[in-house]
Amino acid sequence: MQALPNLLWLRSFEASSRLGSFTAAGNELGLTQAAVSNHISALEQQLGHQLFERTTRKVDLTASGRAYLPAVRKALQDLAVSTEGLFGNRSSGSVTIRAPISEGTLIIGPALADFQQEHPGVTVRLLSAIWADTVLETGIDIEIRLGSGNWPGVRSESLGSEFIVPVCHPALAKKLKKPKDLTDVARIHTLGFDDHWARYFEALGLDTPRLSTSITVDTSLAAVEWASSQGGVALLLERVASRLVSNGRLTIPFETKIPSTQTHFLLHREASGPQKPAAQTVEVWLRQLFATPE
Fold first, then answer.
1. pLDDT band at residue 279 using 50, 70 and 90 as cut-offs
2. 163-259 adopts what CATH topology?
3. 16 close to 5: Cβ distance less than 8 angstroms
4. Per-residue DSSP letters for the chain?
5. How far apart, in whole angstroms, are the C-alpha atoms of residue 140 and residue 84?
6. How far apart are the first and last CA of the chain?
7. 94-161+262-291 falls under which CATH superfamily?
8. Using one digit for the tens of pLDDT, what is the confidence trace for 129-146?
9. What is the pTM of this model?
10. Angle, CA 158 vertex, CA 152 and CA 159 arms, to 5°
11. Under CATH, which number does the domain 7-87 receive?
């Protein structure tokens, strides 16, 4: 294995790139400006590339620095998450949640401000996942997944039933006078929910139209953005749709809804020990958040 740069040098590099100053980085890390500068110089010497352009008031990343930063930042974050998962978090008020990217963005994220007002001592770290993993990673205090509830090595707790409803831009909804009009507009399909449109048309008593006017995306978040730009009609979980309707981005053109074959689950490792109090507080809040569509 090739020699890796000193961890202190990498921390100084990441902090300096984020704060734009060796002095500010030193203040954050408990080091002097000179120590940070020496760390960066040693790192540049080992790599054989200049990472910063120095000026009298600030430092800016070079092209090499910008290319290197994402890898360094991810490595430091992964190390922090693994250390916390294996050896515990010294900050008992810090809780890491991982959730599907759409739910994290459209359900959990918008509600976090209210949660933190009620629980100022709890710091939440929200990570996104596009596809469900088969293993619950270390370093994750709470995980929410959408699926059938059958994953090896974990205990799953259902967070309630889900229903599917159509959504579109309000301007497009004005053109949809009756459910049959859905056969004449672009339909947005989300990977992993391939049977939703067929089941929805069956619930309407209509034949499923050809797919010539269909659009396919890989997340519900992408479906929301496409529908919001008047690109077509999407089928979403009702709890997600209701939030978007309340802020005026989308509307539900027809009241017919169908049960979802997948629901949200709260996951725990089968052999996990007792949770820290902050994680228990967050779990109670998540159960309430997912209890009923808003």
1. confident
2. D-Maltodextrin-Binding Protein; domain 2 (3.40.190)
3. no
4. -PPPPPHHHHHHHHHHHHHT-HHHHHHHHT--HHHHHHHHHHHHHHHTS--EEE-SS-EEE-HHHHHHHHHHHHHHHHHHHHHHHHH--S-TTEEEEEEEHHHIIIIIHHHHHHHHHH-TT-EEEEEEESS--SS--TT-SEEEEEE-S--TTEEEEE----EEEEEB-HHHHTT--SGGGGGGS-EEEETT-TTHHHHHHHHHT-PPPPGGGEEEESSHHHHHHHHHTT--EEEEEHHHHHHHHHTTS-B------EE-S-EEEEEEETT--PPPHHHHHHHHHHHHHHHS--
5. 9
6. 53
7. Periplasmic binding protein-like II (3.40.190.10)
8. 766 555 556 577 888 998
9. 0.62
10. 135
11. 1.10.10.10
Both tokens assigned to 243: 């939030």
Residue-wise pLDDT tens digits, 230-241: 999 999 999 889
Fold matches, 7-87 and 94-161+262-291:
no
Structure tokens at 224: 């929301």
